[in-house]
Amino acid sequence: MSTRQTIDFLLYDWLEVGQLPQRERFADHSRATFDAVLDTCERLARDKFAPFNRLLDTEEPRVENGRVRLPQATHEALHAYAATGMIAASQDAEIGGMQLPCVVEMAANAFFSQASIAIGAYTMLTHGNAGLLLAHGSERQKQVFAAREFAGEWFGTMCLSEPQAGSSLSDIVTRATPDGAGFEADPLGARYRLVGNKMWISAGDHEITPNIVHLVLAKIPGPDGKLPAGVKGISLFIVPKNLVDADGQLTGIRNDVNLAGLNHKLGFRGTTNTLLNFGEKGGAAGYLVGQPGEGLRCMFHMMNEARIGVGLGATMLGVAGYDASLAYARQRTQGRPIGAGGKDASVPPVHLIDHADIRRMLLAQKSYVEGGLALALYCARLVDEQHTGTPDARAEAGTLLEMLTPIAKSWPSEWALEANSLAIQIHGGYGYTRDFPVEQYWRDNRLNMIHEGTHGIQALDLLGRKAVMQGGAGLKLLARRIDATIARALPQAHLATHANALAQALQRLGAATRSAWATANPEDALANATPYLQAFGHTILAWLWLDVGATILESGDAASSANVGRLAALDYFMRYELPKADAWLRVVESRDNTCRDVPEDAF
Ligand SMILES: Cc1cc2nc3c(=O)[nH]c(=O)nc-3n(C[C@H](O)[C@H](O)[C@H](O)COP(=O)(O)OP(=O)(O)OC[C@H]3O[C@@H](n4cnc5c(N)ncnc54)[C@H](O)[C@@H]3O)c2cc1C
User: Fold this and answer.
1) Nearest to 141 by CA among 159, 131, 90
2) Which CA distances in Å does 272 have to 61, 179, 239, 284, 577?
């Protein structure tokens, strides 16, 4: 099946997105306008992104005379993307947006991630940056910075990490001091001077747009000159690469933001990744966003959508590898069937896809990547519910998103990466060379378990905070949703065994959560947070696959080849994958200390 067929099925048949135009916010839309957006993005991704994916990998960004050079194709693809209005697709019409549902926006952006994820990163960051300013910026900051970003005139970045502070942002040391006596009177916001180093900044320097809007986390020193401890001392600043006047016109003066160097990465090479020095010449001008000390809270505003976006990107790299390995398996011949005559050299060899083990690897990929796509779109649909549902539905959607975001980010990062590894395996030795695209997909995808909160940090968030918040209310709500799917699936003969297996897994997950916390000691509970994350993720995916299966069987169209394929992927996931959750939960439940207690000198 093509990506478009899968997306159409998930959007319209499963999530019933065609009904969203009944809501006031989406009243100008219809299935026809959603389809038009999907058509445009699919075409643009095919014509302007996909053909250059390998070029961007081999022609890494480089610095010439202090300026970052990128292939011309990057400039052209991004200008074409900006011209579609997609950066502001889900924003209000009055600021130039299309008021598109988040779920359609994400589905449309999926084509770009599949075609060339490294190009798409520039606009994803810009979209998140501008969205944050809309929520927390002053009116002037919205007009000067966010509006230009939504129009694609300037791009944006997120500057959180520092060389010594990645996962632990409370340890950042970038310093922001008030810029003179009248610092609060600047029309662009209270003006500070920033001094510090920001590491790993994606899209941190380039000449695709005439300005770059950096959103920078920094600390304002107290009266004693010391930086406040902890996350409550972190504030957020807009630091433009080039200075602008109160109306946003470029002044021709460079801000004190300096490119210290580019990072040379395993994958994702088409996106520049930079070490930026702020304040080499005394201090970079930065304008406070929101209140002092609220910086991390503001940043978290965009985390849900950004993390769903990371998971979707990982998934689409998985889709790209699946498609490539499927095409290869259909075309390459090798070996003969097992059984009588199998060793007869006069019998022509079969295609790879005729071997059961190859079909196993294809089904595994299909179950990971189509399941990952279902997960991302389900979460995006919850974002729409949070914005446009009834008050009760909004609250429920918010709680479900809290629970599901760590999974939406981390599950595809792990399992769509595994899908990419299987795609290489299907290619045999050829997959290990640069003559085929699958090795690049794997390299590009390897980032996703690291950025936007590492795998381990997502696991701590899930078991340490989300699973126990409000006395486990989020987990209970999620369990009710899963139970509803189980009840829906039980009457279907094809699904009854799967429904029972899911019911057991869910019960086990609840019991393991309680056992993990039985001593009320976080050190005991969290020693096995990552196996818990894995088991949780597999349970969620089993739920979504079962729900997809129920939709198919209720439609009475189980015999079409698309649905036969989906039901096979569902069977695969339930029989080969869900049982793994049991092993992962065993160490959680017993609060196993193997890892925690091994002495350092034993390594
Ligand atoms: C290509 C790329 C692009 C990036 N883009 C950006 C960007 O645009 N903006 C930005 O601000 N940052 C960006 N980052 C930074 C990224 O968010 C960090 O790399 C990430 O947060 C991890 O920080 P670190 O690299 O310092 O690793 P560390 O925090 O040192 O972590 C190393 C390992 O230790 C584990 N670990 C850390 N703390 C704990 C703990 N308390 N308990 C258990 N395990 C722990 C981690 O899970 C990880 O496995 C990017 C990174 C890369 C590689």
Assistant:
1) 131
2) 6, 31, 18, 21, 37
Tokens describing residue 85:
């209005």
Residues pairing with 244 in the sheet: 250
pLDDT at 305: 79
* Candidate of 457, 458, 596 to mutate for ligand 1, largest count of ligand atoms within 8 Å of Cβ: 457
- Pocket probe for ligand 1: among 57, 161, 296, the residue whose CB has the most ligand atoms within 8 Å is 161
DSSP, collapsed to helix, strand or coil, labels residue 282 as: coil
pTM: 0.98
pLDDT tens by residue, 520-545:
999 999 999 999 999 999 999 999 99
Q: CA-CA distance, 414 to 454, in Å (whole number)?
A: 11
% of the chain beyond a pLDDT of 90: 96
Q: How far apart are CA 276 and CA 206, in angstroms?
A: 12
Beta bridge partners of residue 68, listed in sequence order: 63
> What are the backbone angles phi and psi of residue 332, rounded to the nearest 5°?
-85, 135
Question: How far does the centroid of ligand 1 lie from the alpha carbon of residue 459, in Å?
Answer: 14
- What does the pLDDT read at residue 344? 85
Among 519, 495, 516, residue whose Cα is nearest residue 575:
495
391-427 and 356-388 are packed helices; what angle lies between their axes, rounded to 10 degrees?
160
Q: Which helix (H) or strand (E) holds 289?
A: strand 284-289
For residue 494 and ligand 1, the question of a CB distance below 6 A is answered with no
553's tokens: 């069987």
Sheet strands (E) in 77-228: 155-159, 175-178, 191-202, 212-219
Q: Per residue in 106-134, is it b (16+ CB within 10 Å) or e — as a string?
A: bbbbbbbbbbbbbbbbbbbbbbbbbbbbb
The answer to whether residues 117 and 316 touch, using CB atoms and an 8 Å cutoff, is yes
Locate the ligand 1 atom nearest the alpha carbon of residue 198 and give its number: 11
DSSP string covering 436-497: STHHHHHHHHGGGGTSSS-HHHHHHHHHHTGGGGGGGHHHHHHHHHHHHHHHHHTTSTTTHH
CB atoms within 10 A of CB 485: 21
Burial of 560 (0-12, 13-18, 19+ CB in 10 A): exposed
Backbone dihedral angles phi then psi of residue 174, each to the nearest 5 degrees: -65, 135
